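Closing statement on the zinc ion sub-project.
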Amino acid sequence: MFDDKKFKYRIVYLVAVIFVVLLINYISSSMTTKQISYNEFLTLLDQKKVEKVLIQKDKILIKSTSDSKYANKALYTGNPKDPELVKTLKAAGVSFNAEVPNNDPILNIILYWIGPILIFMILGRMIFGKIDKKMGGGVMSFGKNTAKLYAENETGKTFKDVAGQEEAKESLVEIVDFLHNPQKYAEIGAKLPKGALLVGPPGTGKTLLAKGVAGEAKVPFFSMSGSDFVEMFVGMGAARVRDLFRQAEEKAPCIIFIDEIDAIGKSRDGAIQGNDEREQTLNQLLSEMDGFDSSKGVVILAATNRPEVLDKALLRPGRFDRRVIVDRPDLKGREAILKVHSKDVKLGDDVDLSSIAKGTPGAVGADLANIVNEAALRAVKHGRKVVLQEDLEDAVEIIIAGKEKKDRIMSDKEKRIVAFHEVGHALVAALLNNTDPVHKITIVPRTMGALGYTMQLPTEEKYLVSKEEMIDQITVMLGGRAAEETEFSMISTGASNDIERATQTARSMVTIYGMTDKFDMMALESISNRYLDGRPVTNCSAETEALIDDETLKIIKNCHNRAIKILEDNRELLTEISEKLIEKETLMGEEFMDMINEYKKRKNPLNEESSEI
Ligand code: ADP
Ligand code: MG
Ligand code: ZN
């Protein structure tokens, strides 16, 4: 049906071209020729204004002399078959000829009709062909493929560009080898997976990895995004899928890459309102994947960060049966990614990428690339030729908390509250055993809304968190508010984010991690969208939910009281450090720990060894 439309369009174009040629022929002939009456012709003869006459079957062509008023026009008149004509011409002494001139009608047709039409058609092809390509199947080709063809090496990426995803690369190496040498696998009778699904949070390098596979395999790379298939008209997406696979089979061995496949691959059941277009597209994709012969060497890669919404049919063996997890990079991975991205950046001697990697737990590749770039921009801003460690550290903070907002002026009273709040967090963290060390405390406001913040950094990468650590984390989060209470006996709105995070943590202890006696190891919530926001979904009765709230509240109350106790016991220290912070606005971790240790010595000069206060 789509080809039909294309055909119609061609016909319209052809008619237009014929019309234009007709017009041109008409105009050009009316400019150089003129019809006159037979009478007028005889008058011209009488006046001796005729030089030459050519008698045709039903026309008489006349060339007038150069002094007549028709000097530069070819004249013609009808041939009335006048028997006297020859006599008259002889009398007038005009040279005449009755022969049909050497004027081949076929040649004429070619010259005046076919030639111009051909030229227009070629022109049309050139112009519309280009527009077509640019718009990806625009006016001229509804439903034609929009799969861009990346020829060999054109992605410009190899596995070298993808850092810190060693496991993922390992599983893809096999596919690369298969594309290089399909026969090797066919001979032994091994079947390779038709498709591999790259799964992971946004920005971890899924798209990059797929391009890397194409670059390594040096085969054509058809890349489309899932949303490219979803069109306004039902059936269009399905046509695109068909087209894509037809093209790919011609070019095999090759790779088809469908980015963000969840746009079309969403589970079909459970939706209240069906989406015909998406369903048709998905069905077409499923049948194409079944239909093609994988021994030819077509491999389908797809990427998603929502694997749980994908239709089960897509995941069954014979389709995307292989799943490659592209997860957040660990410490080593982050360092490797920083290295890749700072390859072309001039780094100063003091730069220590591993310490930056340590300071960015949870960051994905895209964040790290961004950090390196922010650092380079900062170096330029400060008029330096190389990037220093301080640039990188500042960039990390910009990514985490936003830019510094130096022009926001806080009243002295507010500044005091913020300082006590932040030192409250820091002091609780320093005085508890199962917490990460304090890296930095600041009360310089940030563009992302924080009036100040306390940054803690883990000493090493952790994959497990103990119950004690979670309790301590919550206590630290509540330490800010606790400090406000101890010092000012009043509370402010500044703790909203702390409260939210503390509640979230306490609740997961109850519902997900089985850390309470009351519910023991019962799963009360499950995580949906694991690779996106990781929102928990409750799966228990309403009565239980109320009990969950009680348990959560119990944990929070406990931790809150603990924080208040710690700060009340160390009130002097709290005040001392807060005054210092108000004066300096930023305290680094070492300065902060020095103050604590010095205070300890002052208070307890006899027992220097003691690490407890
Ligand atoms: P995704 O498709 O998983 O959302 P992308 O592949 O689009 O993420 O990654 C975005 C950018 O982040 C890349 O262009 C690259 O600059 C950077 N990046 C992400 N992961 C990595 C990695 N593992 N190694 C190097 N750069 C990475
Ligand atoms: Mg992507
Ligand atoms: Zn706080």
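The first strand starts at residue 33 and ends at 35. With this model delivered, the sub-project is considered complete and its resources will be redirected to Aim 3.
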